[in-house]
């Protein structure tokens, strides 16, 4: 018999194939040196606010 894990229904979205593909993409970008780390909420919000609106 194979072991099974129970996934909380409220967290099932994380395990969808689409979400996992995005996780892999993010991991690859990070490995290439992409992405940015914000040290506080204010600088993160300022970066979001600077993104041009469509």
Outline the structure in words:
The chain is mainly alpha-helical and 54 residues long. Helix content is 44%, strand content 0%. It contains two helices and no strands. It has helices at residues 17-31, 41-49. It is elongated, with a radius of gyration of 17 Å. The N and C termini lie far apart (53 Å). The model has no long low-confidence stretch (mean pLDDT 93).
List keywords for this structure.
elongated; 54 residues; mainly alpha; 44% helix; 2 helices
Topology:
Blueprint: H1 17-31, H2 41-49
Residue ranges: pLDDT <50 for 5 or more in a row?
none
Helix fraction, binned, reads 40-55%
From the spread of the alpha carbons, the general shape counts as elongated
- The count of DSSP E runs of length 2 or more, i.e. the number of strands, is 0
**What is the tally of helical segments?**
2
Order of helices and strands: HH
Distance between the termini: 53 Å
Radius of gyration: 17 Å
Q: Structural class, from helix and strand content?
A: mainly alpha
Could you write a compact summary of the structure shown?
This protein has 54 residues and is mainly alpha-helical.
